[in-house]
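R.M. (postdoc): so does anyone remember the format we settled on? I'll just put the structure tokens first.
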């Protein structure tokens, strides 16, 4: 029996596209729902209240309101909710690797993911103690290396994370990994932006970012 290899290849490509488009479409539906909730004050309040309850298992690491009590664990407070929702998806799908996070996120329903993202986005960032001398130096570094993507106030957007008010140790570790291209922190733009930073530059940058609100 003759096998139509061209036809088989076309079928394989079509199936691959279908599997790829399916999750992407589902995530876009969630993002659209998130925006619709944001546009309705009553729905937003209800979602934030529900998100506070749904996020109870996150509090041990990220704090009850998204302000982490551990320097190596990031704050989630004040992040863009669309960005948070996408990171939740990535952990759940295994695109971001953390066994503990993956296990927790996989049990969340879609609505709970939206609610948690909105709850943390509405939370305020707690102040950090910083060195004014380091802050001044870090501001210059941020203006040269980071402002183009993260914005003048370091608040990011739907696809780029907020850095303002973030934990210094977490920032220092993450920036160093981008510079050195180690661990999971591998991104061409970030590696390029941080390539020339010395350790003391990274330290100053973290003080500046932690001082922002």
């Amino acid at each position: 029996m003759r096998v139509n290899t061209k036809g088989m290849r076309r079928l394989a490509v079509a199936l691959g596209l279908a599997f790829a488009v399916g999750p992407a479409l589902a995530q876009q539906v969630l993002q659209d729902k998130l925006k619709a909730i944001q546009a309705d004050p009553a729905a937003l309040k209800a979602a934030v209240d529900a998100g506070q309850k749904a996020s109870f298992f996150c509090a041990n690491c990220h704090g009850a309101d998204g302000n982490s009590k551990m320097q190596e664990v990031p704050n989630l407070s004040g992040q863009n909710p669309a960005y948070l929702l996408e990171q939740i998806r990535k952990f759940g799908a295994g695109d971001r690797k953390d066994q503990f996070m993956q296990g927790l996120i996989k049990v969340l329903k879609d609505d709970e993911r939206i609610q948690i993202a909105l709850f943390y986005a509405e939370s305020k960032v707690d102040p950090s103690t910083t060195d004014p001398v380091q802050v001044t130096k870090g501001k210059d570094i941020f203006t040269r290396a980071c402002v183009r993507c993260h914005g003048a106030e370091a608040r990011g957007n739907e696809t780029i994370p907020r850095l303002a008010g973030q934990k210094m140790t977490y920032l220092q570790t993450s920036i160093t990994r981008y510079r050195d291209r180690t661990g999971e922190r591998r991104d061409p733009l970030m590696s390029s932006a941080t390539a020339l930073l010395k350790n003391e530059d990274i330290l100053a940058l973290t003080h500046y970012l932690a001082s922002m609100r």
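R.M.: ...and that's the designed sequence above, right after the tokens. Also worth knowing: The mean pLDDT is 90. Residues 83 and 158 are 5 Å apart (CA to CA).
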